[in-house]
Write a structure and sequence with these properties.
The complex is a heterodimer. Chain A is of the alpha+beta class. Chain A is 39% helix and 21% strand. In chain B, the strands form three sheets. In chain B, strands 9-8-11-6-7-10 form a six-stranded antiparallel beta sheet. A six-stranded parallel beta sheet of chain B has the order 15-14-13-12-16-17, with helices on both faces. In chain B, strands 2-1-5-3-4 form a five-stranded mixed beta sheet. Classes of the chains: A alpha+beta, B alpha/beta.
Chain lengths: 152, 366
């Protein structure tokens, strides 16, 4: 695959610890473009878009913020806790934007399943279709996430 | 076909070689000579050109807050450049709003000093110092909050105002190849000369907190700079409401020391919000303040007390406890430290009880 200098630089930033400890790629050897493509294809098979997931994730986070770090019941099926930490992060893609260091943990009350994401994760999913590399602490498996969030 | 591929290869090789030569020339051959950095139209530094503005100022012992160590990834090292910086670089654009660009703000880590440069920085930054320290004690306060005690070595004293913060340098370590700075409020007593203490909560994947929690040991060297910030007690007799959660305890603890040191008789109530009993800490320290300060009351608030814990204190969100307990409070001052969500919710409650917005002071975690 032929890559532009910008794409190479982006790949380097995603793999290093410049923004978060351990970077965003985990042990995934695939280039970020390939990860995005594969995750996008997985979502397409389910008939869901990354943007739809991001909208749902943001909705849960914003609702959970009212709990000031305590669990909040969301639509009777989920329990949301939003931890806000000091500072902001930036997106490695070259555009304006800063993201508070919040971590949202959502638990399905009926099954006990959980999912966790940061404010930057939501932006990654929405703007770049990027669910992070396998082994990254904030990697979201798109199919699992879709089933988790879109449960009726 | 073969000739075409060969031609492309040759042209690419020549291009790469020229780029390499330019980089080497820029680094080793180009000599920008002596340049002047004029600060606030008042102070002139004669410096060797060629380094970034951030690095140049750091070499002159002027510390601009920067979280990423000058790599252009945090956007914190903004400085107003009045002249001499050249055009805005693509690497700066993501970090500067339209208003900031119009005002001449630049990322000092990206601006290279190639000629005389005129800048404007807040006066207080001129007194920031770097401190070489040794970590002398690490204490678990909860499962995810620790207190770090540093002995100042060089310089061996720091003058700070309770409420201010320092930046802790994080070296590269296993799992992180980046050197960064992160800000933490000082929690210790100003009379504890030669030492400072910080209260830090572990951030998942946080570069600095992972280092502090998993790699730093007692006896290790630590580098900090500071003090920074304008969060501080006002010199009045107004009754005080403190509100904090988690590691937001740090600056409030420092302010309580200040009140105790001065024998203050100000009325003060401290609402400290946590989730469960295992998140609660510094209870004994707060009791000690209650004994020393005649009009001080500590009100821990548990959002989720265990049913069998026998907890008889305040419950619910810290904002709810505040709302229940506060009457009209037009004459009060409020000091807050916590997450942006907590601050926003608390400010609304305080204003609902008549606290004037100009009397609400906070250290927002952002």
């Amino acid at each position: 695959m032929k890559r532009s200098p910008e794409a190479k630089r982006l790949e380097e930033i995603l793999r290093c610890s410049r923004i978060v400890a351990g970077g965003f790629m985990g042990e995934d050897p695939r280039p970020h473009e390939e990860i995005i493509e594969a995750d996008g294809a997985a979502l397409a098979r389910l008939g869901v878009t990354a943007r739809q997931l991001a909208v749902r994730m943001r909705e849960m986070t914003e609702y959970g913020m009212a709990g000031l770090g305590t669990p909040v019941r969301f639509e009777e099926r989920w329990e949301v806790v939003v931890d806000e930490n000091r500072g902001e992060t930036v997106c490695p893609w070259p555009h304006e934007g800063r993201y508070q260091k919040t971590v949202t943990t959502v638990r399905r009350i009926d099954t006990g399943e959980t999912a966790r994401w940061s404010a930057l994760s939501v932006h990654f999913v929405e703007a770049h279709g990027f669910f992070q590399g396998r082994g990254s602490p904030f990697r979201l498996e798109p199919e699992d996430l879709a089933r988790f969030l879109m449960a009726a | 076909m073969g000739a075409t591929v060969f031609s492309v290869f040759v042209i690419s090789a020549i291009g790469a070689a020229l780029a390499t030569v330019l980089v080497i020339a820029e680094r080793y051959i180009t000599n920008y000579g002596e340049c002047a950095v004029i600060i606030n139209d008042d102070k002139t530094l004669q410096v060797q050109g060629g380094s970034s503005l951030l690095e140049t100022l750091t070499q002159q012992k002027i510390f601009i807050p920067s979280a990423c160590g000058g790599r252009g990834s945090c956007g914190y090292c903004k400085v107003k450049v009045v002249g001499g910086a050249g055009p805005l670089l693509p690497t700066e654009e993501p970090y500067l709003s339209e208003e900031e660009r119009a005002a001449g703000m630049r990322l000092s880590c990206q601006v290279k000093v190639r000629n005389d440069v005129r800048i404007e920085i807040p006066e207080e930054l001129l007194s920031i110092q770097q401190y070489e320290c040794v970590c002398v004690d690490i204490r678990d306060l909860t499962y995810d909050i620790k207190r770090f005690r540093f002995e100042l070595k060089e310089p061996d004293r720091m003058r700070f105002v309770p409420g201010q913060y320092v930046q802790v340098f994080t070296p590269a370590y296993e799992g992180s190849d980046e050197e960064v700075y992160r800000a933490y409020s000082i929690s210790s007593n100003t009379t504890d000369e030669g030492f400072i203490e910080l209260i830090v909560r572990l951030v998942p994947n946080g570069i600095c907190t992972t280092y502090l929690f998993e790699h730093l040991k007692a006896g290790d060297p630590v580098k900090i700079n500071g003090p920074y910030g304008h969060f501080r007690l006002q010199d009045t007799d107004a009754p005080i409401i403190f509100i904090a959660g988690g590691s937001g305890m740090a600056p409030i603890n420092c302010m309580l020391h200040q009140l105790a040191n001065s024998g203050s008789e100000r009325q003060a109530t401290y609402y400290f919000g946590v989730n469960t009993p295992k998140d609660l800490f510094f209870v004994e320290e707060m009791k000690a303040f209650e004994a020393r300060l005649p009009h001080f009351r500590f009100v821990p608030v548990l959002a989720m007390p265990d049913e069998d814990s026998g907890w008889e204190g305040e419950t619910g969100l810290v904002t709810e406890a505040l709302d229940r307990n506060l009457d009209r409070a037009e004459s009060y001052e409020a000091y807050l430290c916590g997450s942006p969500g907590m601050i926003n919710a608390t400010v609304a409650v305080l204003q609902g009880h008549g606290v004037q917005v100009e009397n609400i002071f906070y250290d927002k975690f952002s």
